[in-house]
Structures are given as structure tokens and as C-alpha cells.
Amino acid sequence: MGRRKGSKKKKDININSDETKVFVGIILTILSIALIISPFFDSHLFRSIVTTFGYSSVVFGFTTLYLALRFFSSKTIFKSWKLQLGLLFFSLTFAAFLTFWVPNEQLQSPTQFEFPAGMLGYNIHLFLLSYLGRFIEFLVLIVSFVVSISLITSIKLSQIRDYIEKTVENTGGLEFKGSLEDIKPQDLEQDDKRMDGIINGLDSKREEEQDIIFANDAPKSTENHIHIAPKKVVDENDMGLESQGPKYTNWTFPSLDLLQDPIVQPQNKDVFKKNALIIEQTLRSFGVLAKVAEISVGPTVVQYALSISVGIKVSKVRNLTNDLALALAAPSSSVRIEAPIPGTSLIGIEAPNPTPNYVYEKEMVAQLLKDKSKYELPLILGKDVTGKLIIRDLVDLPHVLVAGATGTGKSVGINSMLMGLLMSKSPDELRFILVDPKMVEMAPYNGIPHLLTPVITDMELVVNALQWAIEEMLKRYRMLKQAGVKKITEYNQQMGFSAMPYIIIVIDEMADLMLSTGVDVETKVVRLAQMARAVGIHLILATQRPSVNVITGLIKANMPGRVAFNVTTAIDSRVVIDQIGAETLLGKGDMLFKSPSHPRPIRIQGAFTDNKDLDNVIKFIKDQTEIVEYTDEVTKAQVVEAKGGTSAGADDPVFRQSIDVIINAQKASASLLQRKLRIGYNRAARLMDELEEAGAIGPQDGSNPRKVLISSASQILGSDSNDELPQ
Predict the structure, then answer these.
(1) How far apart are CA 389 and CA 593, in angstroms?
(2) pLDDT digits 0-9 by tens, 369-386
(3) Which of 10, 43, 328, 412 is the most exposed place for a label (fewest CB within 10 A)?
């Protein structure tokens, strides 16, 4: 008879069928229970198990139970072969480790090994002991424990290594755990020891302050005076080489007593501990398992270094910036995440310090004077988030671009840089060209011998100064070539004194300069930035509008040193430091510094220079020099001979046209002549000088156009000039 319709064919039972898996799982479960309880019950079966495994049978029981769950459950956690292998490896190591501590006298009687680790542990121990010796066996067992824990918890061996190193360095540090414990803010008392071990920047700061040598303690006779004996090693008749010796041979540097003492506020550790726990709890509520591994207390910013669990994306932590700011009761724009912290595998969460300590110029200069021999042109920046003093050498940068919104500390930062240079360099070693469109920021520097020319406030003269710097650069290159050296330090060493002083050009507002002069300034700045480093000419450019129209690609490419104060948008931050981050700064000197040696920006609290400190230092410098000689060549337009060898003047048809232009416009400026006559800036500036000499226009009046003093061309060219003027 045929088979009935609708009858189903029974499935064959094989090793892969569900029934077989359940049956094997039941057998393994029973075996695991027997292994676990065998040391605590007395029967023939249990005594046999204890004889074989000893107390390690409990560990083998849990290993067998995990294997049984592989057959019962379909969850991924029970399918991991690494976890199974780690449990087996841990069980064997544990059995050998129990036997390791048994006295040598009992090794002769194997029956004594029922309760340490049974015959299994006995045989593993004897095998390792006979081939490796007792000490090497102990090391092998320790390594085996570490490897098995790594397999069980999925923690990389490199993470375990880093944790061990950190624990050795910082006693009382964090206890490493694979999963996050339940942490609540009210558990502060239980976590005091853990947090105390990870807070940095408090005690070290005090020790650092104790190491600083102030002027009252330092010997002034050796620190503050320069006595230079000029030595000539080059023939005086050689073309271009300067044979004149130093002018300020007994220069006295300003004393630290002129600067105000730092004001330090005490820090409350409990606040940092509480915030660390809040960060951990907030991240855990969003499914991010992390622990605060280190707390760095800076002057105005506290950095909480996080160690996150394996498998958590860094971007997930970055996206929680606003949530962390809300939990810490801080402005959302003031919390910055740095992932990773350079040189570590940790993520840094930077939040404002509730009790900020600003960085004063006195402590920075004191450190500079201790390490004065390390720097050619020291630039004082400030302190980083760990409280470390940051001073960089301008020669290594070699040009700096400073950008930041109004009121973020840009001008104060530039004053701090200039202050450090004035406190450590004499006028024979360093000269300045200062450009100040605001007319008031750098006005106090007028009258010091370090300047080549008074502070330039007229934008029309800046192009002349940059052109002079280019000519000076080319002149210096010819001098280096004749002396057979490649850079300024070798030349000065050959001459025996600072025959070729460094020149630093500081422009406080680049945006105004670019808008008024445009392409001429850009080409000259780029040329100086490309070539002037070897001959000791350096640029410090500042702007409060970091747009691509002001900071062009050519300028950025040649300005490797970048200082970004707080800016308004992330786009501005990208223009300055090529990445976001500057828009989250706190202001008041909070900056990001980027250099060729630090491609990733480091956060620094800039040094604060009070106006009183600046006035005291400048007054001390001015009192040393009764007469200061400045050169007009820096801002004077170069006189170029006209065609035919005669000087440009009344016979020049363009000069006649320029008179007509200024009379019609009733104002005179180089930019006006450029537009109307379609000539370059240099020729327009020369025409302005000639018009002033002829009495056609008045003298300079700041940034205002010059006044026109004539009403007709005949007053300059004569009675028949009207007929000669081109129509």
C-alpha cells in the first residue's frame, strides 16, 4: 500500500541534529556539576574526581558548563572559541599553580596531591619543573594567566601592558576591570584613593614654582649684563661685510622685580573627583563603557583622560559633547574632546577649571632665564593642560600666524612674546619692525633701541618696509655667500659678535593691510616667508578675521607656526589650524598651538602681560639709552631713476598727470594714483614723495589722505603748464 497523504517524513538523528546537541549538553551539564561539587562531598565518584583534579575541579567544572551552554544556547557569547580556549588554558594553569606551592618534600608521595590540584596538576608541575626550573616555571605560569585572561575578556595584551606600566609609575592608580561597575556620585568616599592616584598638575605645579629662580635669588652680575669683545676674522675691505662692532656692549637686561608676582588660587580635588564620576556615569548611560584613567589640572582647563572598552567607536564619544557639557553644567561650546591624546591610547575630555589660575609673565620669564642658552629667539607662549611651561624657539618655527576674534587675548599674547624677547635679547642681537594699524596697541614700544623705525601706523608705508626687508634679505645673502657660510648663526660666530642681528617683523592686523594694499603685500610677505629664515628675518602676522581672503593659501603654506585663539566658527578654525577646535576655546588667552614639531595642536593658556609690567620693562630699557637712532630707509620709497638717466620730476609726464589727478580729487594718496594712472605702488609712492617735496600736498596724517595745497598745476609747473598737460 502506498504511503498516506499528508504524512511527514521523520528527520534522521545525527550528530548535527538538535536532539543530539541537547543530549550532549545534558551530559556535559551533569559532568560540570559533578566537577564543581566534588571537593565538598564524600563518595567513590567524587573521590576519584578529586584525586585527578583536586580543588581545580571547580574551575574545570565551570569550563565544562560553558561548553554545555554551547549546545543549549544559540547566543553569540556562547559560541566564542577564544573564550572556550581561554577557560581551558586558565584551568590548566590554575591546576599547575596550586601544585607549584607544595613543598618539595611532598613531591615524592603523589598520594598527597588529592587536595592541591590532583594528579593533573602534579604531572604538569613536574613537567615544567624538570625542563624549566622553578623560577622560569613561575614566570611561565604568570604569563599563562595573563594570556588566558586576555582570551576570556577580549582585552588586548598591549592594553594589559599599558596598564601595568601605568600602575608601576603611579602607585594607587586605577584598578583595571573589563566592565564598568555601577558608579554613582554619592560613592565619592569609596573612590577617593582611585581618584587621588590619577589627579596630576597640582603638586607638580608647586614643585615647579619652587624650582623657578626669581631675580632676588639669582646672581644679577652674571645674568643681567653682557660684555662682548668684538673679534674680526674677515678682512674689513671685503665687500658687504660689516666691520663695525657692537654698540650696546654693557647692556643690562630688565630685572624680574619689574614684573608682578603670580596670584595662585587653591584647587579643590573633590570637585575634580566628582566631575570624573559624573563623566563616567553619563557615558555609561549612553552605552559607553569607560573609566577616567588620569586627571590633568591645567591653569584654566581640566583634562579627564578616558580609557574606553574595546569595540567602542571614538566617534560615539565625540558625539556626546553636548551631553557631557550638560552633565558638567558647563557651556556646550567650552567642552572639547581630543581623541586620542598624543602619545597615549586615551581620549581627553577638556572642561573649564572652576577655579582658574592664569599664567603670569614673571614665572614664564623666570623659566626662560634658566634655559636661556637653549633658545636663539625665545617665544613665550604659556602653560599646557598639564601645567607644563611652553616656550618655543622662533628660529625653529620660523614664522608665526596668530588669529583670533576680538577680545580673545591676541594682542596680549603678542605682547608676551615681545616681552620675552626684550628680557633676553639686546639691541645688538635683535631688532624689530612693528606694524600697528590700531595706533595704540604698540605705541608704548616707541623709543626703545630694539626698533629699526618707529612703530608704523600708516598702511601705505608697510609696503615700503616689506620691500626694504626684501632688499635687506638679498644683501644679507650676498654677505653670507662672501663669508662662505649658510646661515646667520654661522656668520655671527665667524665675526665673533652679533654682526648680523635678527629682525622680527610683527604685523598686528593683517586684514586691514590686505584690504588696503592687496596683492603687493601678499607677494612680499610670501617672498620673505620663503627665503628670509636663513638670514635671520622672521614674521609674526596677526589677524582677527581668519578668512581665505586675508590668510591666502600662499601665506598659509609658508607660515608653519600657527596660534589660534577663540574664533567664531569652525570654518575659521580650519583656516588657521586646518581642523576644528578653536571655536570651543574659552577666550582670555586660551589658544591652540601648532608647529612643524607638533602637527597636532596642543592647548595652551597664554601668558598674561599686564600693562603695568609692559610699562616698567620699556621704561627700564629707555632709561639705558638717552638717544635712539632710527633709520628712515625702512619706510622710505626707493627712488628709481627715470628713462634717460634723469630723475623723475617736473619733466616726467606722469608727474604732470598726477598733479591733475590730485587737484580734481582734492585729496592725495598712493592708492588713488595707482587707480587713476594705472601704475604700480612703488612708482605711486615715489610720486607722492615728489609731490610733497614740490609743495603740492601736505605731510602724512596717519591713515587719512594727504591735503592738497594747490589749486592749479601752474603753481608747480609754471604759467605755461596748462598747455603742456595732456588732455
Answers:
(1) 13
(2) 998 888 999 999 999 998
(3) 10
Q: What 3 state SS string does 43-89 have?
A: CHHHHHHHHHHHHHHHHHHHHHHHHHHHHHCCCHHHCCHHHHHHHHH
Q: Comparing 139-148, 238-247, 548-557, which segment has the lowest mean pLDDT?
A: 238-247
292: phi then psi, degrees, rounded to nearest 5: -75, 110
**Residue 40 buriedness (CB in 10 A; 0-12 / 13-18 / 19+):** exposed
Q: What is the DSSP letter of 697?
A: B
149 is written with which cell numbers? 585572561
Q: How high is the pLDDT of residue 562? A: 94
Distance CA 598, CA 62 (A): 51
3-state secondary structure 122-173: HHHHHHHHHHHCHHHHHHHHHHHHHHHHHHHHCCCHHHHHHHHHHHHHCCCC
Closest CA to 415 of 444, 385, 376, 454: 444
Helix, strand, coil percentages, rounded to 5, for the chain: 50, 15, 40
Residues 6+ apart with CB under 8 A from 242: 479, 495, 499, 500
Q: What is the DSSP letter of 461?
A: H
8 A C-beta contact, residue 357 and residue 351: no
Residues 6+ apart with CB under 8 A from 133: none
Supply the pLDDT for residue 433: 95
Mean predicted confidence (pLDDT) in 621-645:
71
DSSP per-residue string spanning 619-644: HHHHHH-S-----TTTTSPPP-PPGG
pTM above 0.70, yes or no: no
Binding residues: 404-411
Q: Which amino acid is at 714?
A: S
CB atoms within 10 A of CB 350: 22
Q: Is the peptide bond before 398 cis (omega within 30 degrees of 0)?
A: yes
Short-list 415, 426, 69, CA closest to 228 = 426
CA dihedral sign of residues 471, 476, 482, 486: negative
Domains of the chain, start order: 18-154 (no CATH), 185-197+265-352 (3.30.980.40), 394-624 (3.40.50.300), 643-724 (1.10.10.10)
Positive or negative, the CA dihedral 528, 533, 539, 545 is positive
What's the Rg (C-alpha) of the chain? 39
pLDDT at 512 over 60: yes
> Mean pLDDT over all residues of the chain?
79
**Predicted confidence (pLDDT) at residue 419 exceeds the cutoff of 90:** yes
Give residue 214's pLDDT band: very low, low, confident or very high (50, 70, 90): very low
pLDDT of residue 311: 83
Nearest in space to 597 (alpha carbons), one of 365, 398, 350: 398
pLDDT digits (tens, 9 = 90+) for 446-490: 999 999 999 998 888 888 899 999 999 999 999 999 999 999 999
Dihedral sign for Cα atoms in the order 366, 371, 375, 380: negative
In three-state secondary structure terms, 351 is: strand
pLDDT, one tens digit per residue, over 398-413 is 999 999 998 899 999 9
Q: Which parts are annotated binding residues for ATP?
A: 404-411
Examine the pLDDT at 89 and tell me if it is beyond 90.
Answer: no
At how many degrees (to 10) do helices 611-624 and 410-422 cross?
Answer: 30
Run of H or E residues at 610: none
pLDDT of residue 194: 60
DSSP symbols for 262-327: P--PPP-HHHHHHHHHHHHHHHHHTT--EEEEEEEE-SSEEEEEEEEPTT--HHHHHTTHHHHHHH
| β pairing state of 389-393 and 359-360 | unpaired
Q: Where are the alpha helices (DSSP H) in 170-267?
A: 192-196, 203-211, 220-223
